[in-house]
Specification:
The longest helix has 18 residues, at 214-231. The chain has a single domain, classed as Ribonuclease Z/Hydroxyacylglutathione hydrolase-like (Metallo-beta-lactamase, Chain A), CATH 3.60.15.10. 19% of the residues lie in helices and 27% in strands. The chain is of the alpha+beta class and 248 residues long.
Length: 248
């Protein structure tokens, strides 16, 4: 049975500038932020299966005060090391989901953050990222990742990885978005990236302005919720400030 660890990077607000501003709920007021700002968690997940140590998205790529990459620090706190990660499953390449995929070492050279992992990226999303660039995509991070030799490009509308990880091209949040279902023995872990970002969005009809196709993303959430409830999926919510994991 798979074990899943939320790797919280904290709460942030994001507005029309698409900049992530740290938010401390003990002292900050959401009403003080610009109108329309969203309050979100940034939360990759570490999934330990029978055969792999898997990372679901890679966070913002911020450093701790001592210069340690935050996601490395969080993984070590779970009892594992970045070198043990064997698969990095990326839902898409927006900066808050892929920022920790690569980092600058002490010599100033950009290196992958998980040297022994295969990074799984949907090919259309990689092409879109290179074409569209800033502010949603940070090419200074994405280009070295794509050139690292560690990337396995995914194609087609659906497929599987090593027979136990399924992926679907969903395309609601951005045209190249994909979602994953990890089936390890009795575990079924669903990661919907920004198309299933929070528990509350699985329960209400909600068209988000930040989605490429808001209506499609809403319909996908309804589908995920219905199938997941029927099949007992454990949902991993990347942006939920209160409930990172839930079975509907």
């Amino acid at each position: 049975m798979a074990i899943i660890f939320p790797l919280s990077e904290g709460e942030f607000t994001i507005g029309h500038d698409k900049v992530f501003h740290p938010f401390n709920p003990l002292k900050d007021e959401l009403n003080d932020r610009p109108t329309g700002s969203l309050l979100v968690e940034i939360q990759p997940f570490l999934v330990v299966t029978e055969n792999d140590i898997i990372l679901l998205d890679t966070g913002l790529g911020f450093d701790e005060n001592d210069g340690t990459l935050q996601i490395h620090h969080n993984i070590r706190n779970c009892g594992y090391t970045p070198e043990q990660v064997t698969k990095v499953l990326l839902s898409h390449l927006h900066k808050d989901h892929s920022g920790g995929a690569i980092h600058q070492n002490s010599s100033g050279i950009m290196r992958t953050s998980f040297p022994n992992a295969v990074y799984y990226i949907y090919r259309q999303e990689a092409n879109d990222a290179l074409q569209k660039g800033f502010p949603s995509y940070i090419l200074e991070d994405i280009e070295p990742l794509l050139q690292s030799g560690q990337v396995h490009f995914l194609d087609g509308e659906q497929g599987d990885i090593d027979g136990y990880i399924k992926f679907w091209h969903s395309g609601g949040h951005c045209p190249g978005h994909i979602v994953y279902l990890i089936e390890d023995n009795s575990s079924k872990i669903f990661f919907g990236g920004d198309e299933a970002p929070q528990l509350k969005q699985m329960k209400i009809r909600y068209v988000a302005k930040y989605d490429y196709d808001g209506k499609k993303a809403m319909q996908l959430r309804e589908q995920y919720a219905a199938i997941g409830k029927n099949e007992g999926w454990q949902f991993a919510f990347y942006h939920d400030v209160a409930k990172p994991l839930a079975i509907l």
